[in-house]
Write the structure tokens for this entry.
Amino acid sequence: MDIKKPDVDFKALLGKLAFLKNHLNMLVPLLIAIVGGALFIPTHIINAGLQKDMNSESLQRADKLKRLASEVVPETQYEIEQRYQEAYAADANAIEKWIKGTSQRKLLTYDLFPTPETDSHFIFQKFGQAYLAGLDQQMQGLSAIMCPTQEQLAEHIDGFSVGAGRGGRGMGETYGERGSRTGQNNETQQKVIDAICRDRAKSGQVYLSSVALAGTSFWATYDYIQAGYASFDAALADCWYWQLGYWMISDVLDVVRVCNQQATHVLNAPVKRLINVQFNRPTIAGVNSSSSMRGRGGAGLYGGRGEGMGMAVRQEEPTESSIAPPYYIQSSAQYLSPSCTGRISDEENHVIHFSVQAVVDAKELMTFERELCSVREHEFTGYEGNEPVQHLQHNQITILEIHVDAIDRDDPKHLYYRYGDNAVVEVTLICEYLFNKVGYEPWLPTEVVKVFDDSEEDD
């Protein structure tokens, strides 16, 4: 294969280079320019790559290091965290202490629970006297009054005939409806009756009879022998249940006090009348009242507490309901009302149901219900009653069932009551009361503890 020689005119080339002979001083700068130009392009390319690597790696890493430096945990961080943890623990302990304090109350007597030092049954009478005295003192604080009886009216009205009414009030044979003329009680007498009844209403802030409060009739006629207790411990357990009842009734009385604190008399009081507080399901107008108290069993003065005693205290004489003690709810079968909470007594809390019936100003009904479920204050002086007073709080009532009925002022049961000019209603509330076990556990009698032990064995 023939290789062609390059067709180069060397003479012409040497002629051009001969130009350089005459300008040798320009040769070096020219070479430098050529070499510099040759190096510029790769240097630019390499520089761009380095700059990209620096941005993607070095600078980002530097930014990360700066962030890490700003997030470095200071050497005192553990102290700050410790304070946070202590604050959380304090909150938890405060809540636990508050819950425990809800059931730390003052006892009626401190020589009875959990075990009295004497086996004399007179110690129970002492407890009963303290029960009655405590409620009487609270009633005086409410400026509680009772409506006039027919006998009292007869003392002021000539020719007034006393009927054979139940409890001596409101159901006379010769005086029927208010404002009517029947027998000897004429229109003039009616005006006098109205005046006397209104004067009585202005003499206090709420209508309330002591026998309307559960337990007062029982302790007023208490007899240890007639009660027929199975043992001394059974009588002691009864006192414990009534101690619980006393705390619960006291709460209801305090609700009335708060609601009526601005009132001057019954006529302008929000709560006009406290009909009863009891631990059975009361008779409710228009409602099937066949439900009865289904409490703990046991013979005695109550005629067997597992038997039906669902009566309302509509009159002033003692009834089965007014002497029936509270009892712990241990199953849904013992509810006085279907419970929205579904609570029963357990290892942490003890549950009791009770009922309240009252006549309330229609506009103040919600206030009464709200106050019933509000926080209340109480005092605690230690389990022996000899420690400095602690001011504690509790909020343990839940309303389970509400019934509201209009008041017929001519109804015999309201005949001699005066409620003022505003519309009033009769309200029946079935409520749940929650006791924290730990708060009062040091006081629990052995017989009461056995109730829960037997219940666990049955389960």
In short: Residues 27-70 form the longest helix (44 residues). The two ends are 116 Å apart (CA to CA). The first strand starts at residue 144 and ends at 145.
